[in-house]
Each structure stands twice: as C-alpha cells, then as structure tokens.
Amino acid sequence: MNPTDIFPINFNEHSGSNKPAVYVKELSEKDRHRILKHFLALEESDRLLRFGTYLPDPMIEKYVNGLDFSRDKVFGVLSRNFRLVGVGHLAFAPRSEKDEATDKDTVAEFGVSVTKSARGKGVGAKLFERGAIHCRNADVDTLYMHCLSSNQTMIHIAKKAGMEIQREYGEADAYLKLLPADAVSVLKEAVQEQVAAIDYSIKANTRAAVKWLRHLPGMGNHPEKK
C-alpha cells in the first residue's frame, strides 16, 4: 500500500514554510490539570463552538473530571511554553441499532478545541488525523463529528477529510469511513507518538531548567539579600 493511502487527507508536517511542525501526543491522567486549564481559558464563543453550548466553569470541571482515559483517547498539542494549545477527545461508544454507516460494534466521536493563539497552524487538522488513524488501528471504521453549522473551522476539516456532512437546525453531523488497519497505519501512529513524546520531554526539561535558573542568584526573581 502506498503510504499516502494511510489517511485520505494529505496532512504535511509543515502547513506552510513559516509554520512549525505540529506534534500530537496522547494525554493521560497526569495531564488532567493541563486539560482543565486549556478549557477554562477558552472564551465564551470558543466554548460554544467546542461543546455546542456555553459551559460555565463548574460544567467544564465536571467534564474534565469525567474523562475516562482507560476507555477514550485524549490527544494534545503543547506550545513551547508547555501549555496545551489544542485538545482532541476521541470518545468510543457502542453502535446503535439505527446506525447504518457501519456494522462494527463500536463507533467513535471526535471533538477538538484550539486556543486562539494557535489557530491557522494546522493544530486542529493534525489532532483530527491522529484521532482517525487511532480509530483505524483500534478496528473502528466510522468516525463521527458533531458541531454547530457556524463552526467553519471544523466544517472545513470535515470537508477536507471527505466526511459526509448533514446539516439540520443549525447543527452539523458528519462521519468518515476509515480504511482497515495495516502495517503502515500502525507504524505511523507509533512513530507519531514517539516523536511527540520526545518533543514533550524536551519541552518539559527546558521548562524545568528555566525554573531552576530563575532560582540562581542574579538569574531571575529571588529574595534580595539584606
């Protein structure tokens, strides 16, 4: 199989000559507090686009506290400052009897949010790609996405992915049929996670080094000698 058949979209490592690479890492329980900070930092309009309705802080906290990392998959993109600028939630659920798009036992739904400062850099598209390739390797052949019809960014990603989109009452439902897993798709996901893990470690070590330097005399904020 041609490597370009791994996924129906041709996502490049660089979306443009001046745009940095986007690394998507699988998140875990230890990242829950960063996920919460990401969602709480979203403006009211962004919360509306992400969840389909405005969620106040207590509801955001309830949503994040309810994330089941053993069942679903959560992916993130970290900035150079070690902050989550993009989060993708891949939720798995049993196929309903009315679902005619697949005969598999499980389907998946994807939701994504990107901070304003990171938009236009391919973050949302890379998160979607990672969610889709994980579905393939998990033997899930149908990926759903639900959003407001006004969410042009997600509609653009859906169209670019070749998703079938149905609009009704100001909302849009889209689904994507995925190819079966193969050696190339499994290798691609493993390599993506390994590269993202290395990037994560570098940023974490850099952050720790900066904090350490700040405590050295003459290198940052520290109590003045009397």
From TrEMBL:
Organism: Undibacterium rivi
Name this polypeptide is given: GNAT family N-acetyltransferase
Gene3D superfamilies for the chain: 3.40.630.30
Record-linked Pfam families: Acetyltransf_1 (PF00583)
Domain of life: Bacteria
Domain N-acetyltransferase, chain residue ranges per copy: 22-182
